[in-house]
Write a structure and sequence with these properties.
Helix content: 25-40%
Largest sheet: 11 strands, mixed
Bound molecules: zinc ion
Strand order of the largest sheet: 6-5-9-8-7-12-1-13-20-2-21
Strand content: 15-25%
């Protein structure tokens, strides 16, 4: 009986993978590299800074230059989950980094899980993170199930490491903001030896007293180091040099994660993951997911045109080059496949753009309160929470407005008149399959990141070059600078070349699945066939 079952299983598995397996040998390792907040135009605008990783990937890989997220909610947790699963937010359910939970009346983060506990490589304790709010399986967990390989992901942010890993993995590692590396009981029973050894040999304090200076001569960078609107994060000025200070305190960790030293560290950790677990060196196919988070922190503080951003990119070029060299050495050139992408882009600093600005959250709330008070709804306040572009009304208000077209129209019109607001959509306008297929690009994009029960009652779309909130700059809209990101495939099974076909980061997982010979459950993305070797 067992022999028959085995024979059937073998037959089935051969059938599933045969078309790909016959054409190309299965890669030993699938790698996804995400650079947090990396805009598509960084690859071309700053091309003169690249000599290593970015140069190699864009000249030896398949570079989809017309790649963009198709949805509104261009944020970290959303983007990583889209890349990790090959599905879109209306499907995978991760609509923001944190949203208002109507049940508890509180904001919850996308990975918060009260049923898990921290497993810290320091001395921390408390509840921790998992993928329990992620409604679709990841490529990594699908590969684990179908190919029995190992899966390891790492990032400075929990939402990035977990978005790439999914619900099950051999190691998912992130940095707690209190300065300790950790995982959770969702992924491990106890601290992993290889991680503990790496951290012991490489304490974060190793970079204490270092100063972040430009790695290239100043005339290699475009624009001014001190441009309008740049921030002063963590006690730094808006110009070089940026000293890290003494190690061990919270200010040091905040500066460290905002410096290129953090990405260099994560790359070393990835090398340790490959070496200590022999990733890509066994019988089957393993998965490695790395998200470099620092560029996002630098972008939020100094903006996409800053010398800090250019310096970070020049250094990441070297960091990713080292990763490729290490994979060539340990796994073998052409024996692994790697995808490079980003979770979202970013807006220019509004102070640097004609007609740019910031939409102030309290003004949105004030407008809604005034209209509803005028309409006899009471004294308010009527807004429960605002998360990015999602406005959540207090319990019952939305149901009332559904029956009260006149007031609903007045609320939408009141918000639409505010500075920087392009359009306001109600949940009912974007919650249907018809909306997801709408020819109206704003309705379609908003619908593709709308998830019933989690998304807001009203969704505010800012005008171009306007950002939501009182920050230096940010992302999270359907504007091109937020949606357009790199999509580059490289290595085993990939046909090199610059491609003009439209692509989205949701296509990465289905394409890697095709190359690795696994079947994803229900991807929204498509296989990027022009990038596949025949
Ligand atoms: Zn991000």
């Amino acid at each position: 009986m067992r022999r028959i079952a085995l024979a059937v299983a073998l037959l089935l598995s051969v059938r599933t993978v045969a078309p790909v397996a016959q054409a190309q040998p299965r890669p030993k390792l699938v790698v996804i590299v995400v650079v947090d907040q990396m805009r598509a135009d960084y690859l071309t605008r700053y091309a003169s800074l690249y000599e290593k990783g970015f140069k190699r990937l864009t000249t030896e890989g398949a570079w989809f230059q017309n790649a963009a997220y198709p949805y509104m909610s261009t944020l970290t947790c959303v983007g990583h989950t889209t890349i990790g699963t090959g599905t879109l937010p209306f499907h995978h359910g991760i609509i923001q980094n944190a949203w208002y939970d109507r049940g508890s009346g509180k904001s919850i983060t996308c990975t918060a899980d009260p049923d898990t506990t921290e497993i810290s490589y320091g001395k921390l304790g408390g509840t921790a993170d998992s993928a329990h709010l992620m409604m679709m399986p990841s490529l990594a967990e699908t590969m684990k199930k179908q190919l029995k390989g190992r899966s390891i992901t790492m990032a400075l942010k929990a939402r990035s490491a977990i978005g790439l890993a999914g619900h099950e993995a051999d190691a998912v590692i992130w940095l707690d903001e209190r300065g300790a590396w950790e995982t959770s009981s969702a992924f491990a029973k106890e601290p992993l030896g290889w991680v503990a050894n790496f951290i012991k040999a490489n304490p974060l304090e190793r970079d204490a007293d270092k100063t972040w200076e430009r790695v290239l001569p100043a005339d290699r960078y475009t624009g001014a180091d001190d441009a309008p609107g740049e921030g002063h994060p963590n006690g730094w000025s808006s110009t070089f040099p940026h000293p890290l200070g003494v190690g061990g305190d919270r200010l040091y960790y905040a500066r460290w994660i905002t410096s290129p030293y953090a990405d260099a560290y994560v790359e070393q950790m990835a090398e340790a993951a490959v070496d200590d677990n022999k990733l890509g060196q066994g019988e089957t196919t393993d998965f490695l997911g790395i998200s470099f988070s620092t560029l996002d922190l630098i972008g939020h503080s100094f903006g996409p045109r800053s010398h800090e951003m250019q310096d970070e990119l020049a250094r990441l070029d070297g960091v990713i080059g080292r990763l490729l060299d290490h994979l060539d050495e340990k796994v073998g050139a052409g024996r692994y496949v790697l995808a490079l992408s980003a979770d979202h882009g970013v807006a220019d600093i509004p102070d640097q753009v004609q007609g740019g600005g910031r939409v102030v959250t309290s003004v949105l709330q004030g407008s809604i309160d005034a209209v509803l008070k005028e309409a006899g709804y009471g004294d308010g306040p009527f807004v429960a929470a605002v998360a990015g572009s999602d406005v959540y009304l207090k319990a019952g208000i939305s149901d009332h407005l559904r029956q009260d077209a006149k007031t609903r129209k007045a609320v939408v019109e009141g918000l639409s008149r505010l500075s920087g607001v392009a359009r306001v959509l109600t949940a009912d306008e974007v919650s249907t399959a018809a909306a997801r297929g709408s020819k109206d690009p704003q309705i379609r994009a908003t619908a593709l990141s709308y998830f019933a029960g989690r998304s807001g009652d009203l969704i505010v779309i800012p005008k171009e070059n306007w950002i939501m909130g009182a920050v230096v700059t940010t992302h999270g809209t359907l504007n091109a600078y937020d949606q357009q990101v790199p999509v580059v495939l490289f290595g085993a099974g990939v046909r090199p070349g610059v491609r003009g076909e439209a692509a989205t980061p949701a296509d990465i997982a289905p394409t890697l699945a095709a190359i690795a010979g696994v079947t994803l459950e229900a991807p929204d993305g498509k296989v990027l066939t022009p990038a596949l070797k025949k």
